[in-house]
Amino acid sequence: MPTMMRVLWLQSGGCGGCSMSMLCADTQDFAGLLHGAGVEVLWHPALSQADGAQVVDLLEAAVAGRERIDALCIEGALLRGPHGSGRFHVLAGTGRPMVHWVRELAAVAQHVLAIGSCAAWGGFTSDPGGATEACGLQYEDDVKGGLLGAGFRSRSGLPVVNVAGCPTHPGWVLETLMGLAAGALTEADLDPLGRPRFYADQLVHQGCSRNEYYEYKASATLPAQQGCLMEHMGCKGTQAHADCNRRLWNGAGSCARGGYPCISCTEPGFQRPGHPFHLTPKVAGIPIGLPTDMPKAWFVALASLSKSATPKRVKVNATSDRVVLPPQPRKTGLR
């Protein structure tokens, strides 16, 4: 029988949302899906029966090398405060700060994964100069360092694998674990911020159901409207690295499909945009957050041309909460 990849999952300073998201994986047999992919959950705080002294014994055995840890998954920011003591988060039953446990376990794990943007960059729990001194495993926002240090490498030779998102998509977590279990995820498969490229080399904008409105710059001004959310409503889908609109959540939805702007939750620093999440900052009426690989002058020229060519149907529907003017059937001559 092939060797199973053993996963140890710990929760630090966060809401537990990434675990809840993972349980929404598109499968009727969550345990069977993992087992079939060669993944064994050694312990997870919400999925495992072992608790108390049993868990402490497991962690001590792992640090001592008596239990093999193939993938150490950390969910939530690492709380180093107050004053570097780490005592804002002491692991129950041990008297020792969680950050101490994480450092020791990371040193013996074959792979180390940051599950969610809190564990990756610090996320909402972090605040520059704040008493929690929260950070990510290998980053503080977009600056390398974090709890484990810029030069950290796990026993496999990989840096921390940052499965970023707030929360992270269940497919991102499971496919990353499956890739590691199969020996198919290498450093070349990680982007410059350590995120798996299978989702981070795409943009949320790709596959968005509002793309026709974006093309004509026909924009919504209220959340319930159907138009593009970029111009007025703060959407950063043209800049956010994720495949949310191609890999739908719960098989059916995404933020934009639900009427909410993309807040770019896979990116470092997303939690402090410097403006309300639902508003688009502008200079001279031009959005600051333009597509990352498009010159501003080109965007302005294209936007002006697009708006002048906007069909009435698109213009009317953009500021409506439903389709008011449907596409009209027309004989095209096509065979």
Your description of this structure?
With about 325 residues, this protein is of the alpha/beta class. The chain has 2 domains: about 200 residues, Rossmann fold; about 120 residues, Irregular (Cytochrome-c3 Hydrogenase, Chain A, domain 2), CATH 4.10.480.10. The chain is about 25% helix and about 10% strand. It is built from 11 helices and 13 strands. The protein has a 5-stranded parallel β-sheet. Strands 4-8 form a two-stranded antiparallel ribbon. A two-stranded antiparallel sheet has the order 5-6. The longest helix has 13 residues. The protein starts with a strand and ends in a 17-residue tail after the last helix.
Present the secondary structure layout.
Layout (H helix, E strand, L loop, with lengths): L4 E7 L5 H6 L7 H7 L2 E5 L9 H12 L6 E5 L2 E2 L10 E2 L4 E2 H11 L2 E5 L1 H5 L12 E2 L3 E2 L2 E2 L16 E3 L6 H12 L15 H4 L10 H5 L14 H4 L48 E2 L2 E2 L8 H13 L3 H7 L17
Parallel strand pairs: 1-2, 1-3, 3-7, 7-11
Antiparallel strand pairs: 4-8, 5-6, 9-10, 12-13
